[in-house]
Write a structure and sequence with these properties.
The protein has one domain (about 10-195, about 225-235): Alpha-Beta Barrel (TIM Barrel). It contains ten helices and ten strands. It has helices spanning about 30-40, 55-65, 85-100, 120-130, 145-150, 175-180, 200-210, 215-225, 235-240, 250-260; strands at about 10, 15-20, 20-25, 45-50, 75-80, 105-110, 135-140, 160-165, 185-190, 230. Strand 5 (about 75-80), helix 3 (about 85-100) and strand 6 form a beta-alpha-beta unit. Belongs to the aldo/keto reductase family. Keywords: NADP, Oxidoreductase. This is Aldo/keto reductase.
Length: about 280
């Protein structure tokens, strides 16, 4: 079990990825995202997750630069957006992201959504970037089991990571099991269900028992489920509080209680129906 913010999981290609990081979805480009990234790094975070569609890669890059931490000590993720899927367009989108971030390489590059039929071509571009040493690891986001099977059947490199919506009411059991079998690291976006779980009575009761907040209990649950997690915040005190989860452990009984909250309930779109940007 991870015992600090710098602790890592080892991806199937040997690359070490922090268990915990900062997500910057909806953090505004400019000072807001720069400050969030700097606050996170100053307080021990080493992993930052952005995406082309968040339109804040330049601010993330600026925050990294101003943090004063050596590049090789950080783990930076971004994602190719739906409208850029395809082989050549993905390679071009990657270069755009890299230059906005002001970096020489990425730690992790993800296909943001599967869509219907372009992701295999897009994956070929990711394989090339990986072989060329421009990315240390490649993966996908929002892929269901059938997407992964389809992709793996026709690729040379298996995805190292699958980043999906994951929280106590969407526990993705089948997907988690499949990813574990295939050596693909599951990663949670919206681990707090965009704040919708913070008043849950069962979670509140568990939080009180450990003298923690509901958010801390959920984020701890992620780690004990062996799922990498990247809660988003722009407030320094929240960034610090989110990471204060390495000094306690949920009992198996409480893990079970949390598991019982699952009802396969999403806050984001269903990957099988989501086609924004592909049109």
């Amino acid at each position: 079990m991870p015992t600090s913010l710098q602790d890592t999981t080892t991806l199937h290609n040997g690359v070490k990825m922090p268990w915990f990081g900062l997500g910057v979805f909806k953090a505004q480009e400019g000072q807001e995202v720069i400050n969030a990234v700097k606050s996170a790094i100053k307080n021990g975070y080493r992993s930052i997750d952005t995406a082309a569609v968040y339109k804040n890669e330049e601010g993330v890059g600026q925050g990294i630069k101003e943090s004063g931490i050596a590049r090789e000590d950080l783990f930076i993720t971004t994602k190719v957006w739906n409208s850029d899927q395809g082989y050549d367009s993905t390679l071009a989108a990657f270069e755009t992201s890299l230059s906005k971030l002001g970096l020489d390489y990425l730690d992790l590059y993800l296909i943001h959504w599967p869509g219907k039929d372009k992701y295999k071509e897009t994956w070929k571009a990711l394989e090339k970037l990986y072989k060329d040493g421009k990315v240390r690891a490649i993966g996908v986001s929002n892929f269901q089991v059938h997407h992964l099977k389809e992709l793996i059947s026709d690729s040379e490199v298996k995805p190292m990571v699958n980043q999906v919506e994951f929280h106590p009411t969407l526990a993705q059991k089948e997907l988690l099991t499949y990813c574990e079998q295939e050596g693909i690291q599951l990663e949670a976006w919206s681990p707090l269900k965009q704040g919708q779980l913070l008043d849950d009575p069962i979670l509140s009761e568990i939080a009180e028992k450990y003298n923690k907040t509901v958010a801390q209990v959920i984020l701890r649950w992620d780690l004990q489920m062996k799922v990498v997690t990247i809660p988003k915040s722009i407030k320094e005190e929240r960034i610090i509080a989110n990471a204060a989860i390495f000094d306690f452990e949920l009992s198996s009984e409480d893990m079970e209680k949390i598991a019982e909250l699952n009802k396969e309930d999403r806050v984001g779109p269903n990957p099988d129906d989501f086609s924004v940007g592909f049109e």
